[in-house]
Amino acid sequence: MANLSRDKKLSRDIVGLVPAAGQASRIAPLPCSKELYPIGFRNVDGVEGLRPKVVSHYLLEKMCLAGVRKAYIILRQGKWDIPSYFGDGTMVDMNLGYLMMRLPFGTPYTLDQAYSFVRQSVVVFGFPDILFESDDAFVKLLDRLDATEANVVLGLFPVKSPWTMDMVELGNHDEVRSIVIKPPTTDLEYGWIIAVWTSVFTEFLHEHLFSLQRRLGRDSTTGSPHQPELSVGHVFQAALQDGVRFQAVRFPDRSLVDIGAPQNLEKAVYDLKFRRGLGT
C-alpha cells in the first residue's frame, strides 16, 4: 500500500495558479506590474553579482520546491511585462503558461479562467504580492491533503490586523469550521494566505460562479458593470456550507507581508534589505 500511495503522488498532476489581474490601485502609480516590483536580490548562475528578485518570484520559488513544475499566470489586458519578464519559466525552473482574465469581478473569476486546464489537477494557489516565511509551506499543505480526506487545505499565518484578512476558525485536528471575511473585531488569530485543493473544489468554484451569474440574470461571459467583487474567501465560505471538506496547516512562528499596501511595501523592502525577516 505504501508503494501504491507513493506512486499515486508521483503520477498526479500538480499545477500552480497565480492570479495577476489586479489594478494595484493602493500603491499606484507604478512603473511596472505590481507582481514585478523588486524585493531583494538573487544569484544567477554564471553571472557575477546579484540581480533584483521580483515579489512574485518568491511564490513561484516555493511552488517549485513543492514539486510544482507547471503554473498558469492569469493576466488582465496590458500586463504584458509579466510574460515578458518570466518568459517560459526557465528562470524559476517551471513551465509557465499565461491566460487572460475575462470577468473583472474578483479573484475567483480570474482563477476560473484556468478551469479547462486544471479541472483534473491538484491546484497549488498563492497570491503573487504576499510574501510569507516557510520555504516548505506548500510541501506541508500537500502532505496534509494526502493524509486526510480534505478537498482543500489552507495555509494559516498569524495576523495582527484581522480586518485586512480572511480569518479562520478551527475545530479538532485543524479542521476548518468557518472563514470570517475581514472582521472588524475578532478573537481569531490566524488568516489564510495560501491553499491547495483537488478537482472537487475546482468544480465547485466553476459551478458556483456559473450559478451566481445566472442568478444575477447575466450572461456568464459578460457579467454586470455594477456587480460586486467576490473574493476567494467568499467562495471558500460557500464551499464549506456545501460540505466541501477543509483542513488547515498552521505556521504559528512565521510571518507575512502584503506589499499591496504602501506601508507594507516599505516594510518589505526594508526588512529584506537588512535581513530582518518578513514582519506583519
Quick overview of this protein structure:
This protein has a single domain (13-273), classed as Spore Coat Polysaccharide Biosynthesis Protein SpsA, Chain A (Alpha-Beta Complex). The strands form 4 sheets. It has a 7-stranded mixed β-sheet. A two-stranded antiparallel sheet has the order 2-3. A two-stranded antiparallel ribbon has the order 7-13.
Describe this structure in words.
The chain has a single domain (13-273), classed as Spore Coat Polysaccharide Biosynthesis Protein SpsA, Chain A. Helix content is 31%, strand content 25%. The model is unreliable at 1-8 and 275-280 (pLDDT under 50). The protein has a seven-stranded mixed β-sheet. A two-stranded antiparallel sheet has the order 2-3. A two-stranded antiparallel sheet has the order 7-13. The protein has nine helices and 13 strands. It has helices at 2-11, 55-65, 81-86, 107-112, 115-118, 137-147, 199-215, 232-241, 262-273, and strands spanning 14-20, 38-42, 51-54, 70-75, 95-100, 122-126, 130-132, 152-158, 166-170, 176-181, 190-197, 246-250, 256-258. The longest helix has 17 residues, at 199-215. With 280 residues, it is α/β, with parallel strands linked by helices. Strand 9 (166-170) and strand 10 form a beta hairpin. The radius of gyration is 18 Å and the shape is globular.
